[in-house]
Every structure is written in C-alpha cells, then in structure tokens.
Amino acid sequence: MSEEEIGELKGTRFVNAYNAVDHTLRTIYNFRTNISFTDLIRRCSGLNTIVRIYEDELLDLARLRNAIVHNKSDKLIAEPNIEVVDLLEKIAKLLSTPPLAVDSIANRTVDIAQHDVTMKDLIIETARVRHSSIPVYKDDTLIGVIRWRKFIEVLGKYILSQDLSIDEFVKNTTAEDFIKTYPYNNHYQIVSKKITIEEVLTLFNRDRKLSSLILTSDGTADCRPEGIITGGDIMDLMKVLEDY
Q1: pTM for this structure?
Q2: For residue 212, which of 200, 228, 223, 198 has the smallest C-alpha distance?
Q3: Tens digits of residue pLDDT in 91-147
Q4: Contact assessment for residue 123 and residue 173, using Cβ atoms and an 8 Å cutoff
C-alpha cells in the first residue's frame, strides 16, 4: 500500500469515527442536527461521563476535523496522525458499544443477609467474606444495604449515648432493625445488570451520597443481586474504560 493510500485510509477512519461520535450522541440525547459538534460535546459533557473525560480531546479533534476536511465537498485535504485516529476510534467505540459494568465484576460473589440475622452474626460473617457492604433481603425482596463503615460510626455513637454494652447491642439488633433505625446510612440504588460502566460513573457523579448500586436481572428489588458496585470500585471501572 502506498503512502498516499495509507494517508487516505487514516483520513477515512478519522472521519468515520468522528461521524460515529456525532451520530451516537445526537441519537442518545435527541439533539438537533443544526447543533454544531462543538456545542454537542459541551452539552453532553454534563450528561455522559465518557464525554466529560474526553471533552478537551474531542474539542481539539473537532478543530482538527475542520482542518483536514473540506467542508463543502467533504474531501480530505490533509491526513491525521495515527495516534489521533486510534483515540477517536476508541471514544467512538466507548460511546456506541459501552462495556457493561457487570462484565467487570462477573466473578464477584454477592453475599446477602436475611432480615432476621443478628448484627453479631453478621459481623462474624462479614469478617470472613470481607465485604464493605451487604444487601439485606426479606421474603426474597431487598430491603436495604448495610455499609460497615457507617455501622461502626453508629456503634460508636451508640456506645457514647446508651447504657447497653456493645455485645448487648449487636446481639439484640437484627439487620432489619438496624436498617429501619438508621435509614440515612442506606444510600443505594437498584439497577439492571445491563447498566454500562458509563452509566454507573454518571450515577455516582450526580449523587455524591450514593454508596452502592445493586445489580439485578431486571432492575427491581425482587431479584437476587448479580453484582454490587460501591464507591470503592470507581477507580477500577475507570481503568476498564482506559483499557477498553
């Protein structure tokens, strides 16, 4: 293949990826065709985590596109660098076929607790499995999620304000009791296992109080969890996007 043909191929790949980004974002968010690509990116940066991550690069690529493509004829008048082409194709792929969050946590076993288990027994079990959060079920329905960091905070405050000992507290308090008594420690959301990594990151970014996402087959509380994502998983999910 000649250098000219290689240059044309790179240019074609660049334009195709650019158009794919443009089409995907307009389709997802129903933007009009008369909005410029630059405005499209700026508006979508608050709606889509991938766009927010690559906003500066996409704005630069928009200017590059105008420099290498003749607007009236769409004829290539210059060739892009291969690294630039690869980057734009990666962004286009992330937007058009984003990776599912459940694929990155597919090997994780989600342990659950029954509503009537005592906090003492739950502490012992958690020491064995070492999960930071555990979903609690009653009659096959999710009723809440216990976060151990928050449990320690509650326990400390309880010790300071009550006459009962720690042992009495954990033996006499069930998981359901704890969830009902301290609901403000229960910031979670149930989502479909089809949720993408981008959607996960967007949810955590929009709600700073969100502590965990429970992934079920249909996104309802009446199914056993097939995955759980906590704030501690964000960096790992970002790495998945980086390597995608």
Answers
A1: 0.82
A2: 228
A3: 999 999 999 998 887 556 788 999 999 999 998 888 777 778 889 999 999 999 998
A4: no
